[in-house]
UniProtKB/TrEMBL annotation, chains A, B:
Record protein name field: Magnesium transporter MgtE
One Pfam entry name: CBS
Superkingdom per UniProt: Bacteria
Compartments it resides in: Cell membrane; Membrane
UniProt subunit comment: Homodimer.
Transmembrane segments: 281-301, 307-334, 355-375, 381-408, 420-443
Entries under SUPFAM superfamilies matching the protein: CBS-domain pair (SSF54631), MgtE membrane domain-like (SSF161093), MgtE N-terminal domain-like (SSF158791)
Organism, scientific name: Mobilitalea sibirica
Predominant subcellular localization, coarse grouping: membrane
An example Gene Ontology molecular-function term: metal ion binding
GO cellular component, one term: plasma membrane
Amino acid sequence: MFEDRKELLKNLIQEDRKDEILGFLDRMYPIDIATVLEEFDDEYLYKFKSFIPIEQMAEIIEQAGEKFQIRFLKLLHYDEIVTFFAYMSNDDIADILGRLPIKIRKALLTMMKSGDTKQIQELLGYAEDSAGGIMTTEYIALKEDLSIADTLKKIKEIGPKTEVIETIYVLNRKKELVGIADLRDILIAPENQKLMDIMNENVVSVKPEEDQEIVAWLVSKYDLNAIPVVNHRNSLLGIVTVDDIIDVIVEEQTEDILRLGGVSKEERVDSSLFTSIRKRLPWLIINLGTAFLASFTVGLFEDVISQVVALAAAMPIVAGMGGNAGSQTLSLVIRSIALGEISLKKNWKLVFKEISLGVINGAFIGIFTGMILYMRYGNPYLGIIIFAAMIGNLVIAGFFGFLIPLILKVLRVDPALASSIFLTTATDVFGFFLFLGLAKMFLPYLL
Amino acid sequence: MFEDRKELLKNLIQEDRKDEILGFLDRMYPIDIATVLEEFDDEYLYKFKSFIPIEQMAEIIEQAGEKFQIRFLKLLHYDEIVTFFAYMSNDDIADILGRLPIKIRKALLTMMKSGDTKQIQELLGYAEDSAGGIMTTEYIALKEDLSIADTLKKIKEIGPKTEVIETIYVLNRKKELVGIADLRDILIAPENQKLMDIMNENVVSVKPEEDQEIVAWLVSKYDLNAIPVVNHRNSLLGIVTVDDIIDVIVEEQTEDILRLGGVSKEERVDSSLFTSIRKRLPWLIINLGTAFLASFTVGLFEDVISQVVALAAAMPIVAGMGGNAGSQTLSLVIRSIALGEISLKKNWKLVFKEISLGVINGAFIGIFTGMILYMRYGNPYLGIIIFAAMIGNLVIAGFFGFLIPLILKVLRVDPALASSIFLTTATDVFGFFLFLGLAKMFLPYLL
């Protein structure tokens, strides 16, 4: 399907069949066109561009991936880029400029219309993952004393150029955001009423420096189509629309899953081999430290192991189960933190539940393991020792699995990033120490 | 802040100050009111209900959590519930009914208006996580030959009762969905034009049985505010709105993270101790199987370990690093699958990259580990063996970390659920076998 489209479009371009190209594109979404174009080499891309109205090309580029946007713009002269930008929204332009070298960015900005330049430079000033960094400046804001009749006129005028039409932002004379008006209410209100009569004054808004994760959480909680961004004087700076919020949620989720697995959020399965080495090796080296700590712990008991070699065979069970139980607690807590459901201050008492769980699950798994080892090696004391060690290690797993992410959160370190390394260290080192330590204490019974 | 509101509202209820309660609620969002009410006991809740207009109460209940909805309805008589439902949308009613015992559900349905009953029963027929299960039947659908003037009249009429106003769904005479019209375009079109003149015929739609994850992916890809759900005859059945899509994305993500950590998607940090035991213990028991496999593998080499006890101390390093490297690959692949970026058929060649990565990262970590073990035990052969075993284990980790989730996907098993257990088995069993097997082969050099 995708390959068919790509080949078909390629042929049409090669044969200069402009009308057919335009007809073909008519039945496709800009995002799907962008996906096809990303596979083209520069020659085809440049030729394609020459067939397409600049407005349509701008729409396609707005939907394309970052890398492709930059690649495409590099095919153009500066003045062509500026013409191109005239058809794009200021927040998209700011995003693109933010990824260009400073020299080119400055050159382009000086060539653009001064009104846009100012707004774009303001947008460029916000961090990429803040409300200001993801907001758009295309919204409808009207004065509170505007009549419904005039409001409708204004909406017809501005509507086509704006991203959100179903919510109108209402400003007072000082240009402060004082309410929002729902287009539904505007449509049915008497024509002589004013916006202030029908607006809702309970406005959820954010400051431009607010983290995008918080912005997404608010939009999701209040089922908003867009959330206004205001400065400290309550002046409206822009809005963040729900489609960008979805991107934020997906991005933050990707980050969490990858970080939990010890991968950088920038890596993808199809990153180059070199990139993958550079991104993954450091994490493996950090983990090597943990592995050596575990190894040294075992090393302390080499004399015991040399006398009772069955201990070596039982070691992977102790470490493995501690790791598994700890992961369970860790996943739950990390997810609860991401959903804003839990904090150390409010919920620290839940650690006692995790400890109880460690005792009960540990006893269960411990009895089972103890019995099998008893049957295998014929020594009941080995079974009893692993039973006790299993309870101990699962308590440790629950205790640290619960507390580590919450403490990291308080320290403003991403729990998804660093929790697992501390947890593994805890369960491995304590787990081995407990198991082999008990074995050493009761060595005479094991021989 | 939250506690203040709760206490204030409690006092107002106790002192029967109805007007102040209503004034207080005026400044709060329904979702925030619901959060406060969830903390009330039944007595306060019932009294609160008696102060509030039924319409406002219905709005609050629509926003509340599932458990609270059921708890609240249990306070009401059947006829009260039916009156209550009259103020709620059919999809919310269907969701609530779906969670009630069949007897009560049937009793309520027979008491309701017959038109609603039919629609609700249809909604109840769809799986909870399908497009049909999350769609709403509140949308605006108009005939294609309707004039713009009449369209605007209709929108004013239906608009206030509908969830989405900025997109109008356009039907032909056979009631098939033939296009969508953007309210922006309707507002600026000449009054005598028809909907068919301005509608967009490229409609992205889904079938009611479509999985909610696919629905979310489409809405996110095409930046939609809502996606229409049509049957096989292309008749419009409902729409899924973007706010529900956000819930789906967050829910699916929670599921993925919890499953990767070996926890059921139904568990939360504050689930009861008994629930947590019931949910987590089965997973630990399954993992115990893996741990025993690893243990048996080690057991095969007990004679070697008893002669070179340093091997026992090095074991955690081999197993740990294999697990870490495998997790890296696994996280990347599982996330790429969730984002629809990768499939076994299209991307199987990437396994060679993972294998190369295993060789390179394994060599790096292996040299480092080998040198430290050489320094610690003074035997170069132990270092060489762990170097070779490390490369082997990281290749295994990359190979299985890449293929396991993709194969599970083909078999229609959730990769997030079962991948880690197979991967751990592979890295532990092969890892130990390789390391201890090499040690056995070169035993004379190690003594």
